[in-house]
C-alpha cells in the first residue's frame, strides 16, 4: 500500500506557510521515517507538521515532533 506524507511549515499564527512538500512512501515504516526526518530536522523557530495518508486519502497519523523537544 502506498502512503503520502505531507509536510507543512507552520507560521506564528498556527497557519501553514508556503506550499507543502509531498512525498510518497512504500509502507507505514517508510512514511514514519520521512515524517520524523522532515519534522525533527527543521530549524528552531520554523516548526513543521507531517500528515500521513493512505492510498484512499484517509489520515493515518499526524506527527509534530518528539515530546521532549517541545518548546516552552
In percent terms, what proportion of residues is strand?
35-45%
User: What integer value in Å does the Rg equal?
Assistant: 12 Å
* Count, helices: 1
| Low-pLDDT residue spans | none
Termini separation: 38 Å
Largest sheet: 4 strands, antiparallel
Q: What value does the average pLDDT take?
A: 87
Order of secondary-structure elements: EEHEE
Sequence of strands across the biggest β-sheet: 2-1-3-4
Structural category: alpha+beta
- The tally of domains stands at 1
- Globally, the shape reads globular
Number of strands: 4
Structure report:
With about 70 residues, this protein is an alpha+beta fold. The protein has one domain (about 5-65). Helices cover about 20% and strands about 40% of the residues. The chain has one helix and four strands, in the order ββαββ. It has one helix at about 30-40; strands spanning about 5-10, 15-25, 50-55, 60-65. The chain has a four-stranded antiparallel beta sheet with strand order 2-1-3-4, covered by helices on one side. Strand 3 and strand 4 (about 60-65) form a beta hairpin. The radius of gyration is 12 Å and the shape is globular. The N and C termini lie far apart (about 40 Å). The model has no long low-confidence stretch (mean pLDDT about 85).
In short:
With 72 residues, the chain is α+β, with helices and mostly antiparallel strands. It contains one helix and four strands. Strands 2-1-3-4 form a four-stranded antiparallel beta sheet, covered by helices on one side.
List its traits.
72 residues, alpha+beta, 1 helix, 4 strands, 18% helix, 40% strand, globular
Amino acid at each position: 500500500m502506498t502512503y503520502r506524507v505531507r509536510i507543512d511549515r507552520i507560521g506564528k499564527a498556527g497557519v501553514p506557510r508556503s506550499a507543502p512538500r509531498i512525498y510518497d512512501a512504500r509502507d507505514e515504516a517508510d512514511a514514519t521515517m520521512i515524517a520524523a526526518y522532515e519534522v525533527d530536522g527543521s530549524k528552531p523557530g520554523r516548526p513543521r507538521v507531517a500528515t500521513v495518508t493512505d492510498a484512499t486519502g484517509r489520515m493515518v497519523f499526524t506527527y509534530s515532533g518528539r515530546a521532549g523537544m517541545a518548546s516552552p
